Known about the structure:
The complex is a heterodimer.
Chain A: E1 5-7, E2 13-15, H1 16-22, H2 29-45, H3 60-63, H4 76-89, E3 95-100, E4 103-104, E5 118-122, H5 123-129, H6 141-149, E6 154-158, E7 168-174, E8 180-189, E9 194-203, E10 210-219, E11 224-232, E12 238-247, E13 252-259, E14 264-273, E15 279-288, E16 293-302, E17 308-317, E18 322-331, E19 339-348, E20 354-363, E21 369-377, H7 381-389, H8 394-410, H9 416-432
Parallel strand pairs in A: 3-7, 6-8, 7-9, 8-10, 9-11, 10-12, 11-13, 12-14, 13-15, 14-16, 15-17, 16-18, 17-19, 18-20, 19-21
Antiparallel strand pairs in A: 1-2, 3-4, 5-6
Helix pairs in contact in A: 2-6, 7-8, 8-9
Chain B: E1 2-13, E2 16-27, E3 31-35, H1 42-50, E4 56-64, E5 67-68, H2 74-80, E6 82-85, E7 92-96, H3 97-111, H4 119-132, H5 137-141, E8 143-144, H6 150-164, E9 168-172, H7 180-193, E10 199-203, H8 207-212, E11 217-222, E12 225-230, H9 232-241, H10 244-249
Helix pairs in contact in B: 2-3, 6-7
Pfam family, one (chain A): SufBD_N
Domain SUF system FeS cluster assembly SufBD N-terminal (chain A): 28-170
Protein name (chain A): Fe-S cluster assembly protein SufD
Amino acid sequence: MNVAVAKTGSGRAVSDLFTSAEGRLPGSPAVIATRRDAFETYERLGLPHRRIEEWKYTDLRALVGELLPLAAAPDAAALASAADAVKAHAVAGARKLVLVDGVFAAGLSDVKALASEVGFKTLQETLEKDAGLLKTAAVDAVISLNAAMASDGVVLSIADGAQLSAPIQIIHVATAASASAFTRSQVAVGKGVRATIIESFVAAGAKAYQVNDAVILSIGDDADVAHIRLLDDAPDAVNITSQFVTVGANTKVNFFNMTSGAAVSRLQGFITLAGEGSDLSINGVNLLQKTEHGDTTLVVDHAVPNCVSREIFRAVIDDRAHSVFQGRIIVRPDAQKTDGKMMTRALLLSDEAEADNKPELEIFADDVSCGHGATAGALDDNLLFYLKARGLPEKQAQALLIQAFVGEAIEQIADDNLREHVIGIAERWLERRS
Amino acid sequence: MALLEVKDLKVRVEEREILHGLTLTVNEGEVHAIMGPNGSGKSTLSHVIAGKPGYEVTDGQILFKGEDLLEMDPDERAAKGVFLAFQYPVEIPGVATMTFLRTALNAQRKARGESEYSTPDFLKKVREVSKSLNVPQDMLKRGVNVGFSGGEKKRNEVLQMALFEPSLCILDEMDSGLDIDALRIAADGVNALRSPKRAMVVITHYQRLLNYIVPDFVHVMSRGRVVKSGDKELALELEASGYTQFEDAA
Ligand SMILES: Nc1ncnc2c1ncn2[C@@H]1O[C@H](COP(=O)(O)OP(=O)(O)OP(=O)(O)O)[C@@H](O)[C@H]1O
Ligand SMILES: [Mg+2]
């Protein structure tokens, strides 16, 4: 890591990254103290590297090296360019909540149009009172770094019984080049809620920026929630996102993530099934080209009996790109009748494309059904030939087959507008292929 | 005018020569039938004309409208008017038949410098064609050939042929798997496409198909060569006497 290190009066090492940002970071003095502790943890650990088991395939020291300074709060010009990006990336019918360079932008957001059952605050507002939201499990250094540096985020609470007809879309827009945005958001979903939450990461012309996001999502009993994350950052950006999810009883959760941008990305999800009878479905799609590196690392913790989890992870890997999927399923001793399965399917479009796949089952109960599987291969030559014999040029024939491959995941998205939106992103990715 | 000229074609698959110097000329407006025992190289010939990879042409040439077909990618051949109705059409899960048909038709038109079909025009055209071939609309909503019966797959091939309006139609055993009614409908569809500018090469094992699609010429293939050519009477002869006489000749 190349961050310059300065000594403070107390003799503790605090790098420029924090000291230069400290004055601008929101929060009471107590919050600042929490941040400082978190930063010390980060500094002690440093950026994760390949000798840390969980980061074996994603060596941030090698891939990212230098952390960029905190982005300045967006000025009028930044907000104007963000407005265009928001227009381009908004899902029709969704209620938008926009973060520009890590700061909530009220003028671009639909706070007033949120359903009455949805409580909204910014992270900044909550940090005026207490540091609670910064105190997640410090699983690794990037999470500590996020706690130290988080400049803003959205804090949502969806009241028991709310049936939200319109999805809520949190849009992260980057306008500042060569700068970092640290965001942290919380979504607390009450009992019996039906809701769709979208998170989009996009660039408004910005290049070579870094995103470190954390999401704390708690879902109550008897709920039906879809969470769709669309990482469509600039091709030279870095995006590290950590999700902490707890799921109540008899709840249905559909996660979908599609990565179609960023030079380096890591989505790490820590999902605890904390109530019986719940059904968790996770669909991941990595669309990677050039030298992109996309890592999805999920820990699904079956803490209670009688839950079902299904993870299907698809990767389309072109050129010299590298896709990583690490899935761990933990079944606690009394989590009997757990049914947990994960599957990875990699489509390799080039000889130099790389897919790493690390499934792990940690099973401490005896009456369970768990498993994992993986396939990797190229496009089927016979199918390609059939399409070409009907007049489709190679690239177009490939595109149809790739769309079919990822379409199986995209089909799981229930909302029509959202599904079309996601198909559009995949199509643009296909058009970018050289 | 000669539409297709196959001259002394030698083709290898995995180091083994399958076609040993095959010659065949098809003029505009003609219908040629190719018959011959299993493994004699009929599908190989059709694949090489369509441009399927995996075949090594070691000698000879194929001209289409005077141009060297072997220099073209399969999609260029299709855009120029070569169409192969496959003996074994593949299933393509996740690609809706309608999307496939529209993408293919427009790709061909684009390659020829023609304007692409608008969605309504395209739908109208597909509806017309599928109606005349008795292809249910429901079939078009599914993935390409996915879950189609053998006969339905064949009908889907004829439907594509009618939609793309190629100038050379090669039908590789389109009659296999079709029931009698379906055979008649498909043959009617093929006959409707007969025109002075278009030629057909009909590969079949059964004389019956040739009662519906009456050929101008019949060729017998054996062991990688055309060993006898004649008119439609030859097909009747074959029906009566089988191929053994030609096995010796080859
Ligand atoms: N990919 C391949 N690899 C090895 N041998 C092949 C391949 N394709 C064809 N052949 C061989 O080439 C010969 C000709 O096959 P082809 O499919 O052209 O015959 P056909 O005349 O169409 O037969 P049928 O009437 O059974 O359809 C056969 O002996 C077949 O086994
Ligand atoms: Mg054959």
